[in-house]
Amino acid sequence: xxxxxxxxxxxxxxxxxxxxxxxxxxxxxxxxxxxxxxxxxxxxxxxxxxxxxxxxxxxxxxxxxxxxxxxxxxxxxxxxxxxxxxxxxxxxxxxxxxxxxxxxxxxxxxxxxxxxxxxxxxxxxxxxxxxxxxxxxxxxxxxxxxxxxxxxxxxxxxxxxxxxxxxxxx
Length: 170
Prior knowledge:
Layout (H helix, E strand, L loop, with lengths): L2 H4 L13 H24 L6 H11 L6 H8 L3 H13 L3 E5 L7 E5 L1 H21 L5 H17 L16
Antiparallel strand pairs: 1-2
Helix pairs in contact: 2-6, 3-6, 4-5
């Protein structure tokens, strides 16, 4: 009898179902990872990834003007953001402009090449999101948006939550 046959494989216990709230967080994380992975794959033809696309989109839509703004909007760290901005600038998709009044401030602008490419990037990203929403009715997709917005609002610090009428001063 070989040593291998003497060792019996023990049955693996079934995967434990996490607590309700934790499973929602887990599923949201998996959905986000799936979206980002899909967008990365679609944007590969442009030599970009999902995070670089998000930077261009936030700048073009006016959600941010500086690297610090982008870090806040995207929940990203400064060092990683600098590397993303450097790559986009090297590709001619973004430019940096020093503020005239305060030389410490550097504004970020989508360069003409970036503006020209943005509609194609938006189309590619939208196709990935649409694929993830396949089988959802328009009402279900809107309901999902509503639920996600409510979760985001509920997660705001006390006093910043528009749903908290007394600003957390109870």
